[in-house]
Amino acid sequence: MAVVVNPGLDRSGCNLSANSKDVYNGLQRGSVLLLCSCSDLHTKPKKFIWETFRTGRWTDVLNDEHYRGRLQQFNNISPGNLSLLISDLREEDGGDYRCSTEKEQRDMKINVK
């Protein structure tokens, strides 16, 4: 089996799509989709992490019991789509969030009403 590599494909890692600090407004018990993606959706980042400053320090969202059963990721469908869907929003979900790759990060905020 031959593997063909596209010479035009940048293998140097994920460059996040441009966006300024986004503010997302959500309702309690609703959902919010935090957008974060590589400029090339076929580029798989070497590593990425979603963090929140909800507790007064940056903590890993994906391993936080507070979010158990309420998160959905999309990178299994498209490797460069790092977006995060938070369902069943709670008032305490409000605050600062960060999507980080090996190269850069994007900050955003959730307001829950």
**Radius of gyration, taken over Cα atoms and rounded to an integer in Å:** 15 Å
**Portion in strands:** 25-35%
Question: What is the CATH domain class?
Answer: Mainly Beta
Oligomeric form: single chain
Concise description?
With 113 residues, the protein is mostly beta strands.
Structural description of this entry:
It is a single chain. This protein is an all-beta fold and 113 residues long. It has one domain: Sandwich (Immunoglobulin-like), CATH 2.60.40.10. The chain has no helices and eight strands. Strand 3 and strand 4 form a beta hairpin. It is globular and about 40 Å long. Residues 1-10 have low confidence and may be disordered. InterPro entries: Ig-like_dom, Ig-like_dom_sf, Ig-like_fold, Ig_V-set. It holds the Pfam family V-set.
Summarize the helices and strands and which ones pair or pack.
Blueprint: E1 22-26, E2 32-34, E3 48-52, E4 59-60, E5 71-73, E6 84-86, E7 95-101, E8 105-112
Parallel strand pairs: 1-8
Antiparallel strand pairs: 2-6, 3-4, 3-7, 5-6, 7-8
Main attributes?
113 residues; mainly beta; five-stranded mixed sheet; three-stranded antiparallel sheet; 8 strands
